[in-house]
Design goal:
This protein is mostly helical. The two termini are 50 Å apart. It is 59% helix and 0% strand. The protein contains eleven helices and no strands.
Length: 297
């Protein structure tokens, strides 16, 4: 994730600088065409028109890229705010525990590489999560099973123990929030309930490896969406995001690069030669300092 963000930021900054250079080049070409330096039908006017079209085409593509990058950045920042906000709602956790929980929320599902941090979190912190917080963790635990990152029985012991107990309690409930659990194959459901109730833990964990559990337990999408935050004031957002240093935004990068940007496309040394017709011709009528597009005759 970090590598992709750095790439997007670097690529966008470079394109912003290039856009500033292209705008300067376009202005130079338009000025030359409007001044009558190049005459209609001459090789020079055709060359300038071609260069102008090329510069404008590239500039349009860069502007689309920048717009897309800005949109992606806004969505990412909104998602980060939503995650940070959700973490602050876990009032029983200290700042460090909230930070760790926020890192878990950034993931759509867990992988084996998360086992170490999950073992520590479930041992020291999990019991103090709200029911909503525990659900968020369960969604990612079972998401890893669904995506075949691991089998349930491969999870750290403390994670298996707490998730299995939570599932056992849910299977005893008829609450509407557990409607999906009713789709678990009756044989699998009964086998798990009996094994867990008889304190046959390892057998119960193996039963939870059966497909009908992964297909029906904690199905809600794990990714935290920006829409999950209903209303946060700017001051609250600043407070929440303080521990999460924000990257320089694209607008700031644009100001910095355009202020010092100089066109790489140099026109000063361009030798303008007439096409051979000795008669003087008026400037291209469609070329004015207003910036209208040049067309090759």
């Amino acid at each position: 994730m970090v590598a992709r963000r750095e790439f997007v930021k670097l690529g966008t900054t470079q394109e912003i600088a290039e856009a500033g250079q292209l705008r300067a080049a376009v202005e130079n070409i338009l000025a030359m065409l409007a001044s009558g330096t190049a005459y209609q039908g001459s090789a020079s006017s055709i060359l300038l028109a071609t260069m102008l079209d090329s510069a404008k085409s590239r500039l349009a593509q860069i502007e689309r890229n920048i717009e897309e990058a800005e949109k992606e950045q806004r969505q990412r920042r909104a998602s980060e705010l939503a995650i940070a906000y959700k973490a602050t709602l876990e009032a029983k956790l200290n700042a460090e525990e909230q930070r760790q929980y926020a890192e878990f929320l950034e993931k759509e599902h867990f992988t084996k590489s998360d086992f170490g941090s999950l073992e520590s979190f479930y041992t020291k912190t999990w019991d103090r999560l709200s029911e909503g917080g525990k659900s968020e963790m369960s969604q990612r635990v079972w998401g890893g099973v669904r995506t075949k990152e691991y089998e349930f029985s491969e999870l750290p012991d403390v994670v298996k123990e707490k998730e299995a107990q939570r599932l056992y309690n849910a299977l005893q409930s008829q609450a509407p929030t557990h409607q999906s659990l009713r789709r678990i194959a009756p044989e699998d459901r009964n086998d798990f309930i009996k094994a867990w109730g008889d304190n046959r833990r390892n057998e119960a964990f193996e039963i939870l490896d059966r497909p009908s559990f992964a297909q029906n337990v904690s199905l809600k999408a794990g990714a935290v969406k920006a829409e999950s935050v209903k209303a946060i004031t700017q001051s609250e957002a600043a407070r929440i995001l303080t521990p999460h240093a924000a990257e320089s935004n694209i607008e700031e990068a644009s100001k910095a690069t355009n202020a010092a940007g100089v066109a790489n496309l140099k026109l000063d040394d361009l030798q303008l030669a007439d096409s051979g017709d000795s008669k003087s011709k008026p400037p291209l009528p469609e070329m004015r300092a207003s910036g209208s597009k040049a067309k090759a005759p």
